[in-house]
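Minutes, project huddle
Topic: does the predicted pose make sense with zinc ion bound?
PN asked that the exact inputs be recorded in the minutes so nobody has to dig through chat later. Recorded below.
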Amino acid sequence: MCEGVRAAGDAAAAADVDVITSSGRRRIPAHSTVLASASPVLESILQRRLKKERDAAAGGGKVRRAVVRIRGVTDDAAAAFVRLLYAGSSGDEEEIDEKSAAQMLVLAHAYRVPWLKRRCEGAIGSRLTAESVVDTMQLAALCDAPQLHLRCTRLLAKEFKAVEKTEAWRFLQENDPWLELDILQRLHDADLRRRKWRRKRAEQGVYVELSEAMDCLSHICTEGCTEVGPVGRAPAAAPCPAYATACRGLQLLIRHFSRCHRTSCPRCQRMWQLLRLHAALCDLPDGHCNTPLCMQFRRKEEEKAAAKAKAKAGDDDDKWGLLVKKVRVARAMSSLGKRRQMSCSQC
Ligand SMILES: [Zn+2]
Ligand SMILES: [Zn+2]
Ligand SMILES: [Zn+2]
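Predicted holo structure (C-alpha cells), as shared on screen:
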C-alpha cells in the first residue's frame, strides 16, 4: 500500500502541468509531453505556458507548474478527458458514459483529437433516439462530426413521424426555421435518392432476367432441355440447373410461339423480342448459330446500321441499342460472378 502511495506521489511529482477544470475545484496533475502528443491544440498552449514559466524562473521568480484550463464542461467530463488522453487511442477502451459523451465530443473537436472524436461519435450514435436526434444533429454540425450527422439523418428519415412529436422538434420549428427547412430538404433529397436507387435496382433486375433468358435460349437451341430441343434432335432428358427459374418458362413460350396463329399476340411479341435480342448479342460466326431467325435478324440489323449511317437514327433505335448494351453488361457481370463462384468452390 505504501509502495502504491509512494508511486502515485512520484508520478504526481514528475507532473509538470496542472489541468484545472472550469469550476476551479479540481486540479489534475499531468505531464506536458503526454498532453502535447495527444492534442496539437494542447501542444501549442503548453509551449506558450511552459516558456512563460521558464522565463519567470530565469528572472528569479518562483518556480511553478504551468496551468491548462479546460472550460465549458463539467469537472467529471474534464477529468475523464484527461484520463482518455493518457489511455490514448490504443489503450483500454474506457466506456464513454451517456452523460459526458456530448461534452467529450466537444472537447475532442476543440482540442483536435480525431480518434476520441470517432469514439464519441460511435458512443452517441449508438444511443440515438427520436427524442435526442434533433439536438444531436445540431451538435454533430457544430462539432464537424460527419459520421454522427449521417446517423442522425438516417434516423430522422426512418422515424420522422416520431421525431415530429418530440419537444425538441417543436422547439426547432419555433426558433430555427432555417434548420427545419434544411432538415426537410435533406429528407426530401434522401427520399429521391432512395426512389432512384430502387428504380435502378428494379431495372437491373430486368436486364439480369433478360441475360438469363438469353443463356437459356442458347442452351435450348444447342442442347435442348426436357421438352424442347434443337431442330432435328431430341432434347436432353435431364433438366438443366436453371429449369425451374427460367428454362421451363422459356420452353413454354417457345412451344406457344410455334403453335400460335394470332396476328397480334403479346406472348409471341415477347418471343420475337427475345429472338431479336439474341441476334443482337450473338457473336457466333455466320451459319454456326442454331437459334431460329438469328441470321435474318442480324442481316436486318446490319441493313439498319447502314441506313443509320446515312441518315440520323430514330429514337426507337437508340432505345433498342441501349437495351442491348445494358443486357450485354448484365450478362458479362453475371458470367464474371459465376466464374468467381466456381473458382471459390474449387479452392
Ligand atoms: Zn434447360
Ligand atoms: Zn401467341
Ligand atoms: Zn445466334
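Observations noted during the meeting:
- Residues 219, 225, 240, 242-243, 247 surround zinc ion (ligand 1) (CB under 6 Å).
- The longest strand covers residues 17-21.
No decisions taken; revisit at the next huddle.
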